[in-house]
Amino acid sequence: MRAGSQAQAQHSLTRRTRVPNSCSYVCRCRSTGQRIDIGDGFKICEESFDRIQPIRLPVTLPMQAATITLAKGDRRKLERLRRAASAEQRQALRADIILVAAEGHTNQEIAARLGINRKTAGKWRGRYTVTGFDGLTDLPRSGRPRIVDPVARCQILAMACCLPETGVTEAEQAQQAFTDMMQKVDVPEDDQQVVNEAVGTVAAAIAKGLQAKDTPARTHWTIASLHQAVLEAEIAQLSESTLWRVLNHVEIRPHRQQMWMHSTDPLFKEKVTEICDLYLNPPDGALVICVDEKTGMQILQRKYPSQPPGPGRLSRREYEYKRLGTMCLFAGFEVHTGRVFGRLRGGRTNWDTRCFMKELATWHPEGDVHIIWDNLNTHCGDYWTQEFNEEHGGRFHFHYTPLHASWVNQVECFFSILTRRVLRRGDFCSRYDFAWKMKTFIQQWNNHEAKPFRWRFRGYPLELGLREAA
User: pTM of this prediction?
Assistant: First the structure.
């Protein structure tokens, strides 16, 4: 060793040197041959370093970015998303990343071109490679913790599903309301045990909440009244807007109502399924005809003529009118063609019904005919199955809809169209004018608009153990 080198070594005996952070070294002792790994930032003494031979490991190159190959139709979607003025900025940026990556650019080049971080480009590049176009949207997040816990939530929903005017105060009835609600609301498994243990508390709270001061006079809940009842029952401390969100989540709207008619027919499901099966699977070579009467159609003559609509103005109809009597329409609707056979009468007596059915039999002189109609007094009796069928070779088969189930009869759909197009805004100068317009509409319907209705309800075949309707 030269003198200058010896002096430099002696000067640096106590100096400690840091291995550069950009690489790692493996040192081998010259005397023993033992390998010693020295990681980034590991300090060694130069005196010891003089006796150890440093060996620099080869630097590992970074993993190459995945090659982007756009799936069929994705380029058009990405271009549309990038150009859309209403698209979110983050979605447009992700589309740009994928389109530039598809040109063969690296993540570093994409970042420089779009002014973003290299890791951002790599993230969405990798996401598209794995999940495709759908992967460019953010994954759903849990969000903030719920303000209303599961127990209070079930209490509120059960209370909203009770009618205030019933005055439910007994714990058993309140508990039944809670049980019914539990079957309709999905409760997380983690909260299921907590809810089950709180059934008694919930039932008592529901009963307490239903004992509002104005309960006997109130017919339904509003958001404000239900909110007040929840606070009085000490179920939860929440605002009206939060209460609305709890109800809206399961589509409960206690302030709204729709008309409904209960059927007491013990064979309701059996009859409905039989009729639906005729609609969906008619017998070979047979006709299915829905028959009913539209009674009490008022013949109204407006005091002044109606005015047509204009720019910025709706059509106008005179409020006052002159009543010229009523008429009744007997109609038979062919289910699988949409054609209508109709006759106008002054009433709906037995004689009128029998005359209409004889004309209907003349309209279809051959083949089996399945008649679907309701339980009106003029439709019942042995006359139809005996005398009427004997006159027409026993080819008529009668099927009765359940009590209070007129919606099963498809002729009601035609009556609805007739009401909206002819009767609701009608202005008739006489009974003859009314009859002419009704006949003209039915004739026009049969010639140009007749088509079968799309019937989707299949009845209850699985519940009754019958064959599934095709």
Answer: 0.62
